[in-house]
Amino acid sequence: MSLEEITFALVRGGWPDAVTGSKKNALRRAIHYVETIIQTDISRVDNIRRDPVKVRDLMLSLARNTATMATIKTIRDDMARGDADNALSVPTIYGYLNALERMFVVEDLPAWSPSLRSKTTIRTSPKRHFVDPSIATAVMRLTPGRLLKDFLFFGFLFESLCVRDLRIYADGNDGQVFHYRDANGLEADAVVVLNDGRWGAVEVKLGTKEIEEAAIHLRKLKERINTEKMMEPSFLLILTAGTYAYRRKDGVLVVPLACLKD
Fold this sequence. Notes:
Blueprint: H1 3-12, H2 16-20, H3 23-44, H4 52-64, H5 72-80, H6 90-102, H7 134-139, H8 144-148, H9 151-171, E1 175-181, E2 187-194, E3 199-205, H10 211-224, E4 235-240, E5 246-247, E6 253-256
Parallel strand pairs: 3-4, 4-6
Antiparallel strand pairs: 1-2, 2-3, 5-6
């Protein structure tokens, strides 16, 4: 897939009707879905009336913080936009997030806690994700063309798109997906863990210039794992928006997202 095709697929989302319908209508479905959530559905899930303006502010903040470890305080401050008197309380934000989670709108990525060779503090905060990145683009009213002009933000949304697909394929193989980050700054955007103990680490890179750095991170993570208590990784993978899949000399796989299922 070309970069333009990936951008369109991201904004369109994975909704079945959007995938099979016309392109023009496909881009409107996520927007209609988001508006229904904001105006009615979030209050129906547990019969608690919630302010649509605050719901929109929360979803906008989650969109801006997609694929980050943003704390509740960060989200609260972002929603308040400098007006502390207008900020929601922390318990209220948790209540809103719980409602969105129950509706399968948000699905944070939990942290992975493997057995390591040496004592290293592992960050336990989850990464913020919508169940589909098109929810983020819909609440921000981003078109594929506008998204292509903001390559940095596109990178975060592309990571969320990759996490969505990894979750789908992992679930079909009795597995789960996590992320890894330690106090030394070493991270993996995703770690696929199957119930039988097999695992593989994934870095997501939109551009080819970052592949070498990503491979170094993956090899370092492999070296830190205590293989006396855990299996060797089944794979080290870099997911890209490129057009070629190949295995590097160090064994790291470089695979376009569109080829993931194959």
